[in-house]
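Support case: iron/sulfur cluster complex. Customer-provided input:
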Amino acid sequence: MANDTIGERLLNVLRIAKGMSFTFKTMFEKPITVQYPEEKRPVFPRFRGKHVLERYDNGLEKCIGCELCAGACPAECILVEGADNTDTERYSPGERYARRYEINMVRCIFCGLCEEACPTGAIVLKHDYELADYNVKSMVYTKEMLLVPYVLPDGTITTESGTVAERVAAMMDRADSELTRAEDAVGAGTRG
Ligand code: SF4
Ligand code: SF4
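Agent response - structure generated as follows:
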């Protein structure tokens, strides 16, 4: 430093002035503080967050239990156990459905290869990024956790993994038992 020429010293002063000008400029800018979690920044359209298992409009599951997603997953975090649909127990339109479907989210690297490999568009990475948990065991997402809810004709929302017919039958049973209860109450009132 002691041997610096006047030109080099001048250059150093200019460098310091340039740095300080940036500091002074940002001092008067509005801070970019996002009040998370009340305020959430929008994610990019192709952001890959938490997975869901999609359904068709009629409630049947898109997943056919083919295990292609598990084969494509570089982190080996998907477990699929397929089973056969029957005429009386139908979960998906094809021959097979996923009896068990799990993703270990601790191992997932959100690469999206499972989505790319899926032939039916069943597994999709959505925009939900709030996945933190205190318990590592609860980070294994089961089929029931991944399957999108289905709205029954009576407006009930269910995430059950059952056939549409079964769920509608359950709804009719509930309506029947409520009707019986109402009739009993009316009968008891009349007798009283
Ligand atoms: S996003 Fe990638 S790592 Fe995660 S489950 Fe899909 S294929 Fe596996
Ligand atoms: S999510 Fe897609 S690729 Fe994976 S088992 Fe289901 S249908 Fe096959």
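The chain is about 35% helix and 15% strand.

Case will auto-close in a few days if no follow-up is received.
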